Amino acid sequence: MTRYNSILRFLILLFISGLCIGIVSAAAENVPAPVNIQIPRENATMPTHQPPASGFRAMDAHSMDATGGPSFTFEWSVPSATVIHPQYLTTDPSGTVYAIDFWNNSIAKYAPDGTLLGIIGESGTGYGQLGRPGDVAVNASGYIYVVDQGNNRIQVFSPSGSHVTQWGSQGTGNGNFNTPRGIALDSTGSVYVADTDNNRIQKFGPDGNFVTAWGSSGSGDGAFNYPVDVASDASGRIYVTDRNNYRVQVFDTNGSFLTKWGSYGYGSGSFYEPIGITVNSSGFILVTDDSKYTVQVFDAAGNFQNQFGSAGSGPGQFWYPYGIATDTSGNVYIADYNSYRIVITDPSGTPRGTWGTGGNGDGQFIWPTASAIGPDGNIAIMDYGNGRIEEFTKDGTYTGQFGAGQFQGAYGMAINSSGYYYISDSYDNRIQVWGPDKNFLFQWGQYGDTTGSFNSPEGIVCAKNGTVYVVDTYNNRIQVFDPSGTFITAWGSSGTSGAGMFFEPYGIALDSAGNVYVTDTSNNRVQKFDAGGNFLAEWGTYGSGEGQLWYPEGIAVDLQNRVYVGDSWNSRVQLFTSNGDYITQFGSLGMGNGQFENIYGVSVDDDGNVYVVDIADDRFEKFSSGPVVVPVVPLPGYSLPPTDPDNNGIYEDMNGNGRLDFADVVLFYDSMDWIAANEPLAAFDFNGNSRIDFADVIRLYDEV
Q1: CA nearest 91: which of 361, 342, 463, 411?
Q2: Cα angle 326-328-329, degrees, rounded to a multiple of 5
Q3: Which residues are CB-neighbours of 113 under 8 A, at least 6 positions away?
Q4: Is the dihedral of CA 8, 14, 18, 19 positive or negative?
Q5: 471: buried, middle or exposed (CB in 10 Å: 19+, 13-18, 0-12)?
Q6: Which end of the chain is more exposed for a tag (fewer CB within 10 A), N or C?
Q7: Is it the case that residue 638 has pLDDT exceeding 70?
């Protein structure tokens, strides 16, 4: 049977190619000339085709947006917790916690167990809208007072979150504000506002009527240099963190100066940058110092009692502690600003938990910087702040971690086809290599500008043959090594406009032909080179329009040689052809699903899924582009359109009779020119080489 099939195949191919003229002369008169289809450059160098998984037909068969490019759908994020950027916070008598979500222009409301109860506010200047909110306070009846910093006003919301009233506008007069920050209520309901850039405290009645103000610019008693927060105690004393005077000042409710404490320094009772202040139920004053990563505790007279906290992401550690609040149960809540979380401790600083995304637990990150996809399809994430690599399956399931404490500020990571990890250990100016078993193997590099030395190696990628390309960021060059770290070549120099010149490049990626794409970050462009470093093309200018870039960092190339660029400060991913022609984009500024704040890493798997690492949100997100019904039309002379009998996205039934047979092979050959011009490529590219040609005829016959 095998021999028979081979002979039959040979005869059929002769027939189709028009060579069996004596046998099929009538058919030969209608056989068209061989098809010569012009294909885009980005599709001309496709890798050897591998049969796709069932139901998948690469990106051309994916859903298209209005611009003709693929549209991307948010799938999930890791961690999945709601992302907030906590700055100030407070509690009410029931233990509910209210946290200012600075970048999302809202207030996140939490139950005492950390359950998110709701979000109040949105971006804008209208009633109930917020612009970079500052502090928040809640009165005994549950009404919420918010410092609307960017709009220079105070807004009041009901316990259910409905807007009630507001007061204030920009200025220096009574009741006017200039970037206010902190707010506090006393036992009578009076409102005290730190009018930061006016260097004063203003006092209002519960309804917003102006009562008095005190303070001026300076360093004397009662003067301020950037007051940022305010608190009150049960005896009516008002405490103010006078940030740039490195002290706390205390007043009575009328603004009369009472006392002060603190000075510049690192010792107990001294401050680098005092920010948040609160008074607990025992009368102790707690002050955050975000540049010392600590909370200091004082008695009512200003005598230092103790301090807790240190720099880091572990339990009880902080990356810039900002606002602080306490509840009647003794819990202390600290807004760990740059870790995107709220840290909870007891009064002595013993950790009780965290809420939010940032952290050092399984599946949490502190400043993730890079992603890479291994030969098994799993996703590895460089957890910069925790000095480790975490790994996940395609569905986001955490599978493990390695290297804790072994990386000093690592920005880049690549995994070669054999599963070896190459890590740009940026601060130590070296490349580390780890085996598939997650054990360290060897390293190379040191600080310098000679070949093989680095000045902050960042982006890194491995070619199919094992060659390693490293972005030597502050030496403004690309260095190339063999898999063992032996130097091969380098190219690039410092510059702001020339071909092959760089200004702080970051990301790097390869296409199927071995061409090299580099995000020339501070030049707001992408440069393309061949494997030897010869300049081929560039695209991008500063801006936010289509195809423009603002601090591009992460970059990846898919199986169709399309280029994904993490347009970091535009909070989006842009998609280009391999020559830099704009295709489409996705993403916007924010912390919601499908939004970004600061994109560092971008990876694309073989199924066209895109993984985006957001360093500012301490998470990575997955986007997919699902298949759609392909709009095919009947071939000339037929009334029925082609069909897809096995539901795999390929339309083998050319004549629409519901089955695959030899007539379909002949019809396909006869109609190749017409199909190339009128049908969707992905539906009829049977061998997956991104064009319609005679190889598709052979593939179709093989299926028959």
Answers
A1: 342
A2: 95
A3: none
A4: negative
A5: buried
A6: N
A7: yes
pLDDT tens for each residue of 175-205: 999 999 999 999 999 999 999 999 999 999 9
Which whole-number Å values give the CA distances from 233 to 92, 154, 188, 277, in the listed order?
15, 22, 12, 11
> Could you give the C-alpha distances from 435 to 384, 411, 417, 439, 632, in angstroms and in order?
20, 19, 12, 5, 48
The one-letter code for the residue type at 615 is I
CA separation for the pair 682, 43 (Å, rounded): 12
Rounded distance between C-alpha atoms, residue 454 and residue 503, angstroms: 15
Helical axes 662-670 vs 2-17, angle rounded to 10°: 30
For residue 26, count other CB atoms closer than 10 A to its CB: 7
| DSSP code of residue 192 | E
Helix (H) or strand (E) holding 668: helix 662-670
Is the pLDDT score of 700 beyond 60? yes
Strands 493-494 and 501-502: parallel
Q: Is the pTM for the entire model greater than 0.90?
A: no
pLDDT of the residue at 332: 97
Q: Which of 437, 434, 396 is nearest to 414 (CA)?
A: 434
Determine how β-strand 122-123 pairs with β-strand 129-130: parallel
Query: What pLDDT is attached to residue 681?
Result: 72
Side-chain half-sphere exposure of 213, counting CA atoms within 13 A: 20
How many helices (H) and strands (E) the chain has is answered by 6, 52
pLDDT at 33: 30
Distance, in Å, from the CA atom of 577 to the CA atom of 557, rounded to the nearest integer, reads 10
Residue with tokens 């036992």: 187
Percent of the chain with pLDDT over 70: 89
Q: Place 631 in a pLDDT band, splitting at 50, 70 and 90.
A: low
Residue indicated by tokens 């070549």:
489
